[in-house]
Design goal:
Elements (H helix, E strand, L loop, with lengths): L2 H14 L4 E6 L5 E6 L5 H13 L8 E4 L8 H5 L4 E9 L2 E10 L7 H25 L2
Length: 139
């Protein structure tokens, strides 16, 4: 599998919310960005915010829309880039969150039922791709 698959998923997610930026990231000792659309900042700028979102109850009901003003922990650099909100979908490996599909918008997005379902489906596809990649490389 190539990162092109994750980049395509990020483009579709960004388009669903008419958002300028979307990323798909995997957690490990360090966060790895698997794909993105419109993103110019390094993963290290995004990692503290995404780790906070996973540790807190912010993503209890995905997709979670989180306002970045005032900036939640770790989101200061993202908010400074003109991003007003993040819509987050956890990527799961069984019961554990192993990554995040993050869509960044300049205004708080309105997430209809159809968009909600579509974003959850994209998260499930990304999770399946991650699992296949892990199985293929043996870990």
């Amino acid at each position: 599998m190539t990162d092109g698959e994750f980049e395509a998923l990020a483009r579709v997610a960004a388009g669903m919310l008419d958002a300028p930026i979307a990323t798909i990231s995997r957690f490990g000792a360090r966060m790895t960005r698997l794909g993105g659309s419109g993103v110019s900042w390094p993963p290290t700028d995004e990692e503290p915010f995404l780790r906070w979102a996973v540790r807190s109850d912010a993503m209890a009901l995905p997709p979670a829309v989180i306002d970045l003003e005032p900036a939640p922990p770790g989101a200061e650099l993202l908010a400074a880039d003109g991003i007003a909100a993040a819509c987050l979908v956890p990527l799961r490996d069984t019961d554990e969150t192993c990554g995040v599909l993050a869509i960044y918008t300049r205004t708080r997005p309105v997430v209809s039922h159809a968009v909600r379902r579509g974003l959850i489906d994209l998260g499930e596809i990304a999770s399946s791709l991650l699992a296949a990649r892990r199985t293929r490389v043996g870990g």
